[in-house]
Every structure is written in structure tokens, then in C-alpha cells.
């Protein structure tokens, strides 16, 4: 007889003979051999006794066997199943070679629909008697070998769950996990939308700065805009992590790692740009340096790195031709270049409001006449080629 037939015969002795009873309250063995007393005299016990007894009997036939510990399917409560510590259970796993691996045999005669008979054992017992006849033709080995505790499907309570059925999705995740994911996604979306609106508003403020002075609220708005892209990126990163964690912790780490590396150049460039534009808006003493650094990065993003030996006027002339600036853009560029030269080489301690408005107009002209491709937005040259 093959190993499966031997293991099945031992399992049938516990399940089909009708002589054994599941009971968590058992008397002490009257003899010196507790296993013999359980098998031949008492025939009453709990899951650990049934599992250990079958494991010993299977091993006595030279077949590897082990006792596994887990839970029964519990009880059905509406659209879900309730599993508590009262459903703790033990069963046997028999090794049937590399082809099938460890196969589940549960020798405990559970009542109330809590017991699970795998399909490969149902096919064997549907036409057999309560006692196995060792002279009958050996039964075929099982077509599938479950390697974990038998868990039922709602539609087929007598079938073990597959690996796919055991995986957890968003709909079956704990309530706090679902709500946390939704809240973080909403916060990330809000930060993203707010960042776009603040960027547009501060851009308009810089263009209007020659007509009115910035008040305290405008300055605070510009300060907040520096960090909104970082907050939005962090929110989306945490959202991906929560979604991945619902499936498994390693998927969460993988998603966060990949997304973090992929988005880092864009986030870094956006935060740097907003920081410089904030200095340009509220700190006139640092405005020339901030504007020049931002102009160099705009060129690098478009594949035109400026050499260190080039003067401001040389850079401006090449920039105007390279980016095909229109008349308005060239006018803004002349104001920017003249102001930079005066601030660097003259006694003027800080720049006036016209420089701020001209630089904002120059940025818009560059974006209008030399727009960035999508890949250059995601992987800006000023960051990845630095």
C-alpha cells in the first residue's frame, strides 16, 4: 500500500468507525501507556490527543508526520466568520513526497459542522464502509496537497481554502485599516490640490509685486507653499504603504521603496524651486542669488547646463536663442540680467520689486516657449545629472 492509503486508513479509524468522541473533559489514563488507553479503552479526548495519536501511528508505518496547530473555521456570523480562542485546534500533516508535500489529515471527530473533510478524502470515503479493508485496491493519491490548516469557503464549507482565498483585500481588511487608508489618501489629495493653488497664487503675487506690497498673510502663504509638495508626497507614500500592508508587510515596504526612489527627484526639485521663489518674494537681499540658482536649474532641466566660466550676459544670450524666447520673454530677461549685474558688482544692497516681477515673467516665458517633456518633469536634469 502506498503512503497515502496507509495514512487514510489510520484517519478512517478515528473518523469513520464511530467509536471515538471529541471531549475536552477527559479522565486520566488508568494504565501506564496513555496512548494505548486512549486508542483502545477510553476513545475520548481533545484535538491534541487525536492528532498526536495519529501522528505516532503514521510514523510507525515509516511515513513522516507532524502535528500542526491553528484554528477551526469557527462559526458563521452573517457575512463573516467568527474565530475565537475556543476554536484553537490541532491536526496532522503527512508528508507524501515532493509531488504533494505535506497533506492535511484531521482525525478529530468534531461536531456541529466544525470539522472539515478535504476533497481528496471525501472521494475516498464516499463509497467505502466505516472500516477500511486493507485488501482492496489501493486508492489514488490526492490530486492536491494542502499545506496549511483547512479553512472553509462560504460557498463550500467542506472545502479547504486556496491560498488566493486566504489573501486579505481592502474590502476584508480591519475597519481601522480601511479608514486610515481613506483618511491618508484624502489628506494627500488635499495637500496636492492646495499646493497647486498656493503655487498659482504666489506666482500671481510676484507678478503684482510692483503694484502693491506683500502683507503678512501673503508672506505666510509663500512660506507654507515651500513644504506642501513634501507633505503631499509623504501622504501618497504612506497611502501606498497602507494599501500594500493590507496584503502583506513586505509588499508595503516594496511599494514605499519603489515609489520613494521614483518620486525623490521630482519632490526634491519642487521643494528647491519653492524655497528659492519664497526667498525671491520675501527676502530681497537673497533674491539675486536665489533667482540665478533657479535659472541655472531651469536650463539644466531642459538639457542645457551652463558652464561655470560663462558670464551672465553670455548665458542670457544663449538662453534666449536656445529656448526661442518671445519678445516679452526677452524683455524680462534683460531686466533680470541688468539687475543681477548691478547687485553682484555694484553697491546696491538689494533688488527692487521690478526684478521679482521680471523673473516671474521670465519663468513663464521659458515654460511657454520651451515646455518640459513628461520624463524631464519626473526626472529633472538639475537633480539626476547634478
TrEMBL record:
Residues 39-109 form the Transglutaminase-like domain. PANTHER family: PROTEIN-GLUTAMINE GAMMA-GLUTAMYLTRANSFERASE. The chain crosses the membrane at residues 176-199, 220-243, 249-268. InterPro entries: Bact_TGase-like, Papain-like_cys_pep_sf, TgpA-like_C, Transglutaminase-like. The keyword Magnesium does not apply. It comes from the Bacteria. It holds the Pfam family DUF4129. Keywords: Membrane, Transmembrane, Transmembrane helix. Residues 122-133 have a biased composition (Polar residues). This is Transglutaminase. Residues 122-167 are annotated as: Disordered. The keyword Cell inner membrane does not apply.
Amino acid at each position: 500500500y502506498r503512503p497515502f492509503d496507509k495514512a487514510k486508513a489510520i484517519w478512517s479509524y478515528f473518523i469513520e468507525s464511530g467509536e471515538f468522541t471529541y471531549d475536552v473533559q477527559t479522565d486520566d489514563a488508568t494504565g501506564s501507556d496513555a496512548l494505548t488507553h486512549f486508542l483502545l479503552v477510553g476513545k475520548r479526548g481533545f484535538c491534541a490527543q487525536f492528532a498526536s495519536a495519529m501522528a505516532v501511528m503514521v510514523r510507525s508505518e515509516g511515513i513522516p508526520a507532524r502535528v500542526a496547530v491553528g484554528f477551526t473555521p469557527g462559526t458563521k456570523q452573517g457575512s463573516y466568520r467568527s474565530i475565537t480562542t475556543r476554536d484553537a485546534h490541532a491536526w496532522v500533516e503527512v508528508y507524501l513526497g515532493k509531488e504533494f508535500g505535506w497533506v492535511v489529515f484531521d482525525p478529530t471527530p468534531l461536531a456541529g459542522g466544525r470539522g472539515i473533510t478535504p476533497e481528496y478524502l471525501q472521494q475516498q470515503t464516499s463509497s467505502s464502509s466505516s472500516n477500511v479493508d486493507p485488501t482492496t485496491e489501493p486508492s489514488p493519491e490526492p490530486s492536491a496537497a494542502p499545506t496549511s490548516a483547512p479553512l472553509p469557503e462560504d460557498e463550500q464549507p467542506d472545502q479547504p481554502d486556496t491560498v488566493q482565498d486566504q489573501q486579505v483585500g481592502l474590502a476584508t481588511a480591519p475597519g481601522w485599516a480601511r479608514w486610515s487608508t481613506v483618511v491618508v489618501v484624502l489628506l494627500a489629495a488635499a495637500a496636492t490640490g492646495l499646493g497647486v493653488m498656493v503655487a498659482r497664487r504666489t506666482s500671481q503675487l510676484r507678478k503684482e509685486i510692483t503694484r502693491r506690497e506683500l502683507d503678512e498673510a501673503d508672506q505666510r502663504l509663500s512660506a507654507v507653499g515651500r513644504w506642501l509638495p513634501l507633505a503631499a508626497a509623504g501622504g501618497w507614500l504612506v497611502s501606498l504603504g497602507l494599501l500594500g500592508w493590507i496584503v502583506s508587510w513586505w509588499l508595503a515596504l516594496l511599494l514605499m521603496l519603489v515609489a520613494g526612489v521614483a518620486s525623490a527627484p521630482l519632490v526634491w526639485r519642487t521643494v528647491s524651486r519653492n524655497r528659492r521663489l519664497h526667498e525671491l518674494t520675501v527676502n530681497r537681499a537673497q533674491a539675486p542669488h536665489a533667482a540665478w540658482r533657479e535659472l541655472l536649474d531651469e536650463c539644466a532641466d531642459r538639457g542645457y547646463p551652463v558652464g561655470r566660466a560663462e558670464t551672465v550676459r553670455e548665458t542670457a544670450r544663449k538662453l534666449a536663442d536656445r529656448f526661442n524666447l518671445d519678445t516679452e520673454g526677452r524683455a524680462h530677461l534683460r531686466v533680470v540680467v541688468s539687475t543681477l549685474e548691478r547687485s553682484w558688482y555694484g553697491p546696491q544692497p538689494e533688488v527692487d520689486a521690478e526684478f521679482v516681477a521680471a523673473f516671474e515673467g521670465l519663468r513663464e516665458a521659458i515654460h511657454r516657449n520651451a515646455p518640459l517633456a513628461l520624463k524631464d518633469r519626473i526626472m529633472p536634469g538639475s537633480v539626476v545629472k547634478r
